[in-house]
């Protein structure tokens, strides 16, 4: 699938999975644009990776998000892939008001679900326009194994990632109404990572490990995940079509379980998934 991609925007590309994906796509010779909230992180990567493009903005500033998206499309009219990856994770109990600071639930929901939905709204028409004209277009959205197998230690994160999973499904269904060319050329890919060692959970890792006790399991090393991601990126479905999900580790198990259960229901209804 990487051969379909020439210019890719990675939203949330300065740390963790987003940064390593940006580095790998850059290494494959792709034109890469990354976004982030902190100029220092963007500048450091741009200095290291000659030709990397950066844009600084906060995806939870919803008032300015359309302007930033329009600016990117103006500067990169040939943008053919968008990867929405930014997010935060909190661990707390609904039954203990002291376990999370005021406003943090809203902040997590804004970053993990509302912002990705608005970003899809901002970039999907452009990608669809490319696809209907015969240019391959790809939209990646990052959910999580926790979006399919929610766990109470990460309540809001699980809820928001379930929403991103639904976002990918509904977008694929809408593409079917856009004509045969769009169906062939526009690919929506849900990225479903397992527990990866990115620092996303650094503020609560010790506490959640203690809460899980003997059932706690270690995160997958980040580079191992990236290697497996790019291996899966080049694979196809059994019928030869492009991948709809890139699941690694428990993410692959979660996706396969969903496809063997709820996916069959959609097939009976004659609906795309």
Automatic annotation (TrEMBL):
One of its GO terms (molecular function) is oxidoreductase activity. Keywords: NADP, Oxidoreductase. Coiled coil: none annotated. One of its GO terms (cellular component) is membrane. SUPFAM superfamilies: NAD(P)-binding Rossmann-fold domains. Putative oxidoreductase. Belongs to the short-chain dehydrogenases/reductases (SDR) family. PANTHER family: DEHYDROGENASE/REDUCTASE SDR FAMILY MEMBER 7B (PTHR44196), DEHYDROGENASE_REDUCTASE SDR FAMILY MEMBER 7B (PTHR44196:SF1). This is NAD(P)-binding protein. It comes from Bimuria novae-zelandiae CBS 107.79. The lineage of its organism: Eukaryota, Fungi, Dikarya, Ascomycota, Pezizomycotina.
């Amino acid at each position: 699938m990487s051969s379909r991609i020439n210019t890719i925007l990675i939203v949330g590309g300065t740390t963790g999975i987003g940064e390593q994906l940006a580095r790998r796509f850059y290494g494959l010779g792709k034109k890469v644009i990354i976004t982030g909230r902190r100029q220092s992180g963007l500048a450091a990567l741009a200095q290291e990776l000659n030709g990397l493009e950066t844009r600084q903005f906060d995806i939870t500033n919803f008032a300015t998000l359309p302007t930033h998206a329009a600016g990117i499309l103006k500067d990169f009219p040939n943008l053919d892939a968008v990867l929405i990856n930014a997010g935060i994770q909190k661990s707390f109990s609904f039954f203990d008001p002291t376990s999370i600071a005021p406003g943090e639930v809203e902040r997590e929901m804004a970053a993990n679900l509302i912002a990705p939905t608005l970003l899809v709204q901002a970039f999907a028409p452009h990608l669809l326009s490319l696809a209907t004209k015969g240019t391959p277009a790809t939209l990646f959205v990052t959910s999580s194994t926790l979006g399919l197998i929610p766990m109470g230690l990460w309540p809001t994160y699980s809820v928001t990632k379930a929403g991103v999973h639904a976002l990918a499904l509904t977008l694929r269904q809408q593409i079917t109404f856009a004509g045969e060319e769009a169906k062939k050329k526009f690919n929506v890919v849900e990225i479903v990572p397992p527990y990866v060692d990115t620092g996303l959970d650094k503020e609560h890792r010790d506490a959640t490990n203690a809460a899980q006790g003997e059932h706690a399991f270690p995160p997958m090393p980040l580079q191992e995940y990236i290697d497996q991601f790019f291996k899966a990126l080049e694979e196809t479905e059994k019928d030869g079509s492009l991948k709809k999900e890139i699941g690694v580790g428990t993410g692959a198990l979660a996706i396969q379980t969903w496809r063997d259960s709820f996916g069959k229901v959609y097939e009976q209804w004659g609906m795309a998934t």
